[in-house]
């Protein structure tokens, strides 16, 4: 038996498994099949007949942004710049979030791409000070 036939046999075995699991779910939970068919019908109706004929539907991505405290971002950015691993768990989590950030901005002073949280909370200090005087929410929070 050569390598190609071994790979083909393995692929056939795996593909059988992929059909068995959904079949088991369908038998054990018929309501799930009904829900999936209903979801597919609603999706096709929203897409429309012309959209189905045009080819492959495009995906739609939603992004949810959770803001971090500026002091934590500053400490995390300093640790990243120094190549250090912070002791504080909040700062460590912020370092991981900054590393994983997909929303980078060009920093005008040195031309680097930095995470937006760093740009806004650490590198744009003068702009933030101006916003404190312009935004009504900022004025309300300073008076409390």
Describe this structure in words.
It is a single chain. The protein has 144 residues and is mainly alpha-helical. It contains seven helices and two strands. It has two domains: 3-54; 70-143, no CATH class. 71% of the residues lie in helices and 4% in strands. The chain has a two-stranded antiparallel ribbon. Strand 1 (104-106) and strand 2 form a beta hairpin. Helix 3 crosses helix 5 (116-123). The chain is elongated and about 60 Å long. Mean pLDDT is 77; it is low at 1-10.
Characteristics:
144 residues; mainly alpha; 2 domains; two-stranded antiparallel sheet; 2 strands; 71% helix; disordered N terminus
Précis, in short:
71% of the residues lie in helices and 4% in strands.
Number of helices: 7
Multimer state: single chain
Number of strands: 2
Low-pLDDT regions: 1-10
Number of domains: 2
Considering DSSP H and I runs of 4 or more, what fraction of the residues is helical?
A: over 70%
Largest sheet: 2 strands, antiparallel
Helix-strand sequence = HHHHEEHHH
Helix and strand layout, with pairings?
Elements: H1 3-28, H2 30-54, H3 70-82, H4 89-100, E1 104-106, E2 113-115, H5 116-123, H6 125-134, H7 136-143
Antiparallel strand pairs: 1-2
Helix pairs in contact: 1-2, 3-4, 3-5, 6-7
């Amino acid at each position: 038996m050569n390598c190609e036939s071994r790979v083909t046999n393995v692929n056939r075995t795996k593909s059988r498994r992929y059909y068995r699991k959904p079949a088991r779910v369908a038998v054990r939970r018929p309501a799930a099949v009904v829900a999936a068919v209903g979801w597919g019908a609603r999706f096709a109706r929203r897409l429309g007949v012309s959209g189905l004929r045009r080819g492959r539907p495009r995906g739609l991505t939603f992004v949810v942004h959770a803001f971090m405290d500026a002091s934590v971002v500053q400490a995390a950015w300093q640790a990243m710049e120094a190549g250090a691993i912070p002791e504080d768990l909040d700062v460590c989590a912020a370092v991981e979030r900054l590393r994983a950030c997909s929303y980078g901005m060009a920093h005008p002073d040195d031309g680097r791409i930095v995470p937006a949280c760093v740009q806004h909370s650490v590198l744009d200090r003068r702009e933030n000070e101006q916003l404190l005087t312009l935004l009504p929410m900022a004025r309300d929070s300073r008076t409390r």
